[in-house]
Amino acid sequence: MTFRHALMWTLVALIAACGGAELPGGSPDDDEIRTGPFRLLLFTRTEGFRHASIPAGIAAVEQMGESNNFAVDATEDSTRFNADDLAAYELVMFLNTTLDVLNAEQQEAFESYIRGGGGFVGVHSAADTEHDWPFYGELVGAHFLTHPLVNQQGSLELEETKHPSIAHLPNPWSIPLEEFYSFSSNPRGKVRVLANIDESSYQQRPNTSCDPRNEAFPQGYSGTMGDHPMSWCHDKFAGRAWYTAIGHSEYLYSQNDFLRHVLGGILTVARRVPASCAVNATPDRPVYQPPELETCLNQLPGAG
């Protein structure tokens, strides 16, 4: 992140805290704006696939904190999920976590934290975490199902262009190389969708559900969703949550557009910027297609 961008976001937070002019890209409505420094617990434990981008992600979030008046404690220690430790943080960030990272007691503590007004930020495979815990699935908004076998270019369409986590982005937002997720359900109607992906902008087939080498993935599912949200936020269980499916590739953690996207999400959840996470109106979008079984033969490039 450049000094200029870091300074801009610091000034943005100070303007909001002083009740001054509306943020560029803000959506003030009736949202509470908080002031002062805060602490963020950055959680990166993995019990499945481990992203090579995690160290770069930790460094990037720590730099955001230094430049924007919040402290970051990075950990993979799930025992930190207890009432006493969590009480020190305004939000918890799951950065590329995978599978079952909390035991039953830790889940109970985290649920109590959120229901007590705590915040949550999820990046990329945060949606590939705790698949058997319904509360967590509702908190994130959707669970990961599959992704193409090949990382590639794709384009996101911005829906809430004034939201502080995407106001700086071009529309469409073209990402040169990324692993684009499909989800087992569509969160639209339950969250404020910020961006969706143009499914014609990338090749979905073949995807991980047709990779016989990996038994961890359900087999034979289409990744086509029709209506395909990729970033959203919502006020849930007395807390606030923000999620982006972008964040697989290591190079992203040196890109200003992506870093400001994540920083805007953090400040949204910390309520340091005016930002609405109320459910937005349903736009004229393609009809959502629930995941369907299909033969892997149909997933060969050019087939179907």
Tell me about this structure.
- The chain is of the alpha/beta class and 304 residues long.
- Helices cover 22% and strands 20% of the residues.
- It has six helices and eleven strands.
- It has helices spanning 3-17, 54-68, 83-86, 104-115, 134-140, 256-269; strands spanning 38-43, 70-75, 91-95, 119-123, 144-146, 152-158, 173-178, 182-183, 192-197, 229-236, 239-244.
- A nine-stranded mixed beta sheet has the order 2-1-3-4-11-10-9-6-7, with helices on both faces. A two-stranded antiparallel sheet has the order 5-8.
- The chain is globular and about 50 Å long.
- It starts with a helix and ends in a 35-residue tail after the last helix.
Helical content (DSSP H or I, runs of 4+): 10-25%
Report mean pLDDT, rounded to a whole number: 86
Largest sheet: 9 strands, mixed
Task: Tell me the overall shape.
Answer: globular
For the termini, the CA-CA separation is 43 Å
Radius of gyration over all CA atoms, rounded: 18 Å
Number of helices: 6
Strand order of the largest sheet: 2-1-3-4-11-10-9-6-7
Low-confidence stretches: 1-30
Overall number of strands = 11
Element-level helix/strand string: HEHEHEHEHEEEEEEEH
Helix and strand composition category: alpha/beta
Strand content: 15-25%
